[in-house]
Design brief:
Helices cover 39% and strands 18% of the residues. It has helices spanning 18-34, 59-73, 121-124, 155-161, 179-194, 243-251, 254-261, 295-313, 327-340, 357-370, 380-390, 401-422, 432-437, 458-471, 477-481, 494-497, 501-513, 518-524, 529-541, 543-546, and strands at residues 4-10, 39-41, 80-88, 92-100, 103-109, 131-136, 139-145, 166-170, 197-201, 204-207, 210-213, 217-219, 225-228, 235-241, 269-273, 319-322, 345-349, 373-376, 425-428, 450-451. The strands form four sheets. Strands 13-12-9-8-7-6-15 form a seven-stranded mixed beta sheet, with helices on one face. Strands 5-4-3-2-1-14 form a six-stranded mixed beta sheet, with helices on one face. The active site is at 44 (proton acceptor), 110 (for glutaminase activity), 146 (nucleophile). Pathway: Cofactor biosynthesis; NAD(+) biosynthesis; NAD(+) from deamido-NAD(+) (L-Gln route): step 1/1.
Length: 575
């Protein structure tokens, strides 16, 4: 079989570091040459990193990225190279350059620009208006970029009618729970509907709150995966395409033939002719497919990669965490060790008069299991000093959450002092359930440079903890079983103040992630109507607090921040 060999380069670029990204692309081109590849492919905006956001408004940034394309082209001898970059004509485009033997042979412009959720591409780019086919003698290969393939009427339809055997789709597709399976099924459907092979290439790594999972793959014209890359790791995926088999299948299928009957080629089709002879291979590459991993494992990996890249790409090394003996700080510390190594994680115990002996024991046991250095800084004397200084102005007033929040703010001050002195990044330990209802203290337990669990509901915190313990037990059983508590006053528990977390998280999913009207949510929980009303009011009124929280890793389809944009000054209420 004379096969076309693809090398899909699943790389982890750094936004704005064009020199680093260019060097990595050249490194992978050389690896692809060693694999006797015919075409080497790089992800969407691989040269700039994704998303570059308002860096795009800097003309020097655009020019530097174009210069990098020309540099990469020098390394394309005897190897067709496809790489994502920002193209500039009278406007700018999210583009794919086709390089060969030192030349830019053609450029494809992304046609469907996402402008929802975390995506703002309409803010930056002009829409492309042409479909592009690479012609290698009798072989035709269509080009598309990310969103182009998500629409039922997309460039693939035209490519199939034009007789293409393969579509190359380059991506920067961020992870959320359920996305990997959803994406694969969609690509399989596109392949089957058009009787065409599809090479789907995604980036890997993290940028701010987004995590990219990789999971690049190639499907044949029957929608079967013939090669697949790793999850959350850089990878070089080699796949051999039997384009003659694809052509035979297309000939036998009436759907494509019927579409061709009334098809008239439009001016918006560009043919990129390349004088290239498909290499004779020393051997056919066997299928390389990594088995699907459980969703909980994927989610855990996303958190690890999200934290690792945020710290390392910002040129920091060490993090510091307030260890309370609770499940949130225990899981955060565990993820931090898995991401950065135990030598780069510091734990701080800050007991008060309400901190139980068991909580101190549990925090120390987690630290011991993770082999991280800890410091114990009691806050009782500092707290009493605050109360003394405030005694005149607070005279004759009962204690309330003010005194509770003072404890949290003292702890926040201590963590930030350590950060300031040693250059350690404070990791906030709050979860999505708490962020949703404002069950946290501004300038207290909300302080930090990064919030690992910001988009993780409390019930998912438990799932992730049990999953991590199934690999190696690090979180004590008592932490997993005791009622969660901030321990800011005697006998305080989270669920007594809010709702059982199973109910609370279901409300948050419905109201925040799915935009289900409040009246329907109330009907779902008739026995807790007043408490549910209170939860919905808390979600609505705590937007001001969420805006001041550190960014965190997006793992759900709708996270706080770019995904869900609510006004702070807002008098609309469904309750």
């Amino acid at each position: 079989m004379k096969a076309l060999r693809l090398a899909l380069c699943q790389i982890n670029p750094v936004v704005g570091d064009i020199e680093y990204n260019t060097a990595k692309i050249i490194e992978f081109i050389n690896k692809a040459k060693e694999e006797e590849a015919d075409i080497v492919i790089f992800p969407e905006l691989a040269i700039t990193g994704y998303p570059p956001e308002d860096l795009i408004f800097k003309t020097s940034f655009i020019e530097k990225n174009i210069k990098a394309v020309k540099e990469i082209a020098k390394h394309s001898k005897d190897l067709i190279t496809i790489v994502g970059f920002i193209d500039k004509e009278i406007d700018i485009y999210n583009a794919a350059a086709v390089l060969f033997n030192g030349n830019i042979e053609g450029i494809y412009h992304k046609q469907f620009l996402p402008n929802y959720g975390v995506f703002d591409e309409v803010r930056y780019f002009q829409k492309g208006k042409k479909n592009s086919i690479i012609q290698l003698q009798e072989l035709k290969i269509g080009l598309s970029i990310c969103e182009d393939i998500w629409y039922p009427e997309n460039p693939i339809n035209i490519y199939a009618i034009e007789g293409a055997s393969l579509v190359i789709n380059i991506n920067a597709s961020p992870y959320f729970i359920g996305k990997i399976k959803k994406r694969e099924e969609m690509i399989k459907t596109r392949a089957r509907d058009n009787i065409i092979s599809i090479a789907y290439l995604n980036i890997v790594g993290a940028q701010d709150e987004l995590v990219f999972d990789g999971n690049s793959f190639v499907v044949d014209g029957e929608g079967e995966i013939i090669a697949k890359g790793k999850s959350f790791e850089e990878d070089l995926i080699i796949a051999d395409i039997d384009f003659e088999q694809t052509f035979r299948n297309q000939l036998k299928d009436n759907r494509i033939r019927n579409l061709r009957t009334d098809y008239k080629r439009e001016e918006n089709l560009e043919i990129i002719n390349i004088d290239y002879q498909i290499k004779e291979k020393s051997s056919i590459t066997p299928e390389k497919i990594y088995l699907d991993t459980p969703e909980i494992e994927q989610t855990y990996k996303a958190l690890v990669v999200g934290l690792r890249d945020y710290i390392q790409k910002n040129n920091f090394k060490k993090v510091v965490i307030g260890l309370s003996g609770g499940i949130d700080s225990s899981l955060t510390a565990t993820i931090a060790v898995d991401a950065l190594g135990n030598e780069n994680v510091k734990g701080v115990l800050m007991p008060s008069m309400y901190t139980s002996k068991e909580s101190i024991e549990d925090a120390l046991e987690v630290a011991k299991n993770l082999s991280i250095e800890t410091f114990t800084i009691p806050i009782i004397d500092i707290y009493n000093s605050y109360i003394s200084q405030l005694s005149d102005i607070f005279k004759n007033l009962p204690q309330n959450t003010t005194e509770e929040n003072l404890q949290a703010r003292i702890r926040g001050n201590i963590l930030m002092a350590l950060s300031n002195k040693f250059g350690w990044i404070v990791l906030a330990t709050g979860n999505k359930s708490e962020m949703s209802v404002g069950y946290s203290t501004l300038y207290g337990d909300m302080v930090g440079g990064f919030a690992v669990l910001k988009d993780v509901l409390k019930t998912k915190v438990y799932e992730l903890s049990y999953y991590r313990n199934s690999i190696k037990k690090v979180i004590p059983d008592r932490v997993l079983k005791k009622p969660p508590s901030a321990e800011l006053r005697p006998n305080q528990t989270d669920e007594a103040e809010l709702l059982p977390y199973e109910i609370l998280d279901e409300i948050i999913k419905m109201y925040v992630e799915e935009d289900i009207p409040a009246n329907i949510i109330l009907e779902r929980f008739p026995e807790n109507k007043e408490r549910v009303k209170r939860i919905i009011r808390l979600i609505d009124t705590n937007e001001y607090k969420r805006r001041q929280s550190p960014i965190g890793i997006k793992i759900t389809e709708r996270a706080f921040g770019k995904d869900r944009r609510m006004p702070i000054v807002n008098r609309f209420s469904e309750i």
